[in-house]
């Protein structure tokens, strides 16, 4: 139970870092933020923290990610390069966290940050994740990653924390950079297309419809994927 709570806490920190970097850059470019979601923007809300110019909304759907709601006019009136940077800085936060973990582990060679035992255990954890007991054609999903992480944490808690932090941050960054609507990469593509169309009403409407449609497709896909993984472990 403690292991699962640790994994959940690391994931929440990963999502918060991602969304706060989006929000920080948006504020720097004078985009009007309405809400920062910790958890996907689906009801019900667990808590709403009111700030001076925006709200931080916490939902029970944290495993699905989060989001930053920006006023449409301020978003579309901003330059494409501003939207580009704002969208890139979310994954950038996760890449930075992953790099810090890698530096901590590599720092073992000087005996500064982690012990040799932790370094060796971390290396074995990565091997287990990449090679493990599954076929090369299999894909490690959240359930399998959680199971591997729990196994590692049972042997060495620090190694497990470093491992899951690295894997989660790399995963969140890579997935969000995919050029699909609703994800950061897809938002960049749509923003670029709209910019070429001079942000015409039709191009903006199309972008909005695609984002909404893919948003619900992702929800269905994630539930289907996780249920299949759980069924595979049981069977």
UniProtKB/TrEMBL annotation:
Pfam short name (any one): Peptidase_M50
One GO-annotated biological process of the protein: proteolysis
GO cellular component: membrane
InterPro entries per UniProt: Pept_M50_Zn, Peptidase_M50
Membrane topology of the entry: Multi-pass membrane protein
Keyword Cell cycle assigned: no
Cofactor(s) listed: Zn(2+)
Domain Peptidase M50: start-end pairs: 8-205
Transmembrane segment boundaries: 6-29, 84-106, 157-178, 206-227
Location relative to the cell: Membrane
Keyword annotations from UniProtKB, A to Z: Hydrolase, Membrane, Metalloprotease, Protease, Transmembrane, Transmembrane helix, Zinc
GO molecular function, one term: metalloendopeptidase activity
Coiled-coil region list: none
Family membership: Belongs to the peptidase M50B family.
Protein name: Peptidase M50 domain-containing protein
